[in-house]
């Protein structure tokens, strides 16, 4: 089971702080967005990056352009945008504003054409390249994103029409290119861009958070901790700097190249978590991060103590309740685990992981009533999370135990098609392979899953026992 990364150190690989429009373009152009969905078109969406009061009376032409566009008069809308641009040259190019209108109303092909027209007719404007770069990084197209960010940053350096837009472009360009460089493990290059981001936006906590990450990855732990501290000062909702540091130490411990220093990094991770816990034993983020780390590192008795106090300090935290269920299940207390999973669902109805674990627990019981409930839970969970690989694998396992072979096979195919499986779902697949006498393949899957450092492997003990039986 891969628990959610609940507010652990935010080291995002995305472009950083994408604009609402950029996110809309990503959704409309390249994701499976609902064809009927339409973002609200506002003056803020069109010119908010250019002026401080986009809804002011002096921009009435913008409001009229939106009105005309909503009445299916694109030509009339463009004419009013042109009028607005003539009155205030600080506004974006007309074709770019038209592109935003198209994208925000699900007219992606027309939006792309308008972006191309902007790049052709307003060749010095950086925004078309930054918008497309944001899209590329969201789609994990790092090479394309890198080239587009390079071009956008190059144009931004020369851009002098509107200081407000220029600053927005600097932030987007440097934050985005740093994400590409992080993906490529170019820590020094990422650091340089993150520092330029901070220079343009010194009050942005996420910039310092990401800087802390890249500094840790360069072995500059003290500077990294200072960056995490600054990030926390700017955003009180972020984890304790000790939690962020602890998670980085554990990450460094898991890097194969650091094998000789693994125990040293793990010791530092423990010290940092303990300092965060001693500092505040009621903070939800600290409690979740510390308990999860203890579980993942096999320190189950200490995890139980931490979670017992956590349930008292944060009685309404479904994430703490979920971790309590996981720990109970890992220690063979299945009835207690089921209680915690049900409590999780009472606090967060529809929680995917709680439903998944509860279905797997119930299907293993002897009671026909429990087995029927397991099937009901697994089916509903799959309907709510159709594109989740683990949910489909769980449904397949439950259906197979219920004698519904054809449906089970379809669910397995769906799960395998949807992408990477968690360690626990991999165990289910391995058990099926072992039953089919495909022991070598099952063994390989299990051995690889034991090496996986992401998430919690709830049924690790069962996996280890299966490995021994297959050798």
Provide an overview of this structure.
With about 475 residues, this protein is an all-alpha fold. It has helices at about 20-30, 45, 60-70, 75-85, 95-105, 110-120, 125-140, 140-160, 165-185, 185-200, 205-215, 220-235, 240-255, 260-280, 285-295, 300-315, 320-330, 335-345, 350-365, 370-385, 390-400, 405-415, 425-435, 440-450, 460-470. Helices cover about 70% and strands about 0% of the residues. The chain is globular. It contains 25 helices and no strands. α15 (about 285-295) packs antiparallel against α16.
Briefly, what is this?
Helices cover 71% and strands 0% of the residues.
Element layout with pairings:
Layout: H1 20-30, H2 43-47, H3 60-70, H4 74-87, H5 94-104, H6 108-121, H7 127-138, H8 142-158, H9 163-183, H10 187-200, H11 205-217, H12 221-234, H13 241-253, H14 262-279, H15 284-296, H16 300-313, H17 318-330, H18 334-347, H19 352-363, H20 368-384, H21 389-401, H22 405-417, H23 423-435, H24 439-451, H25 460-470
Give the fraction of residues assigned to helices: over 70%
Low-confidence regions = 2-37
Mean model confidence by pLDDT = 90
The largest sheet, given as strand count, sense and whether it forms a barrel, is: none
**Helix/strand order, N-terminal first:** HHHHHHHHHHHHHHHHHHHHHHHHH
Number of strand elements: 0
Question: What spatial form do the alpha-carbon principal axes imply?
Answer: globular
- Output the structural class: mainly alpha
Task: Please work out how many helical segments DSSP would assign.
Answer: 25
Q: Strand portion, in percent?
A: under 5%
Distance between the termini: 25 Å
Radius of gyration: 26 Å
